[in-house]
Write a structure and sequence with these properties.
Low-confidence stretches: none
Shape: globular
Number of helices: 6
Number of strands: 7
Helix content: 25-40%
Distance between the termini: 21 Å
Order of helices and strands: EEHEHHHEEEHEH
Number of domains: 2
Structural class: alpha+beta
Strand content: 15-25%
Length: about 170
Amino acid sequence: MYYDAVQTRSTSPKLITDFLRRVKVRDGIKNQAVMFDKYRIVAGETPEMVSYRFYDTVDYYWVVLLMNNIADRFYGWPLSEQQFLDYLDSKYDNPSAIHHYEIAQTSGPTTTLDNSHTIVVNSTESGATSVSNMEYEQRLQDNKSLIKVLHTQYLSQFVEEFAQLVRK
């Protein structure tokens, strides 16, 4: 796959092996909350920057991507503000138009950070509020910005196991 590490979509991205599609992290590992920190990606931050922040090197950007099931570097990772606006313009004739209507559910969690407490309804439903195309897409971006980062104490073991799996 071609990969542009600086998100410029320049004319000279690097050709790299698409290892994200060949190896799957065991579900048991990804479900071990004690092995991870939750991290909210800052606008414009790349996987390399997250790798550097947590591991003091950009070399483990692929661990960040793999641990979060991100196979598409450009649309699986939060877009920069300009990329987001360009994406909206290419997808919607009117980003401000209504995407859907929703209400808060009446049982179970009634507030959540990811809006999973809401239910999509018809516009005629009592108490229904509109959600624009832009709000809808922004929520998706916000959900993508909350990732799991493997604790440094497990990094070398994970990298060794990954290398063994790739050699097989």
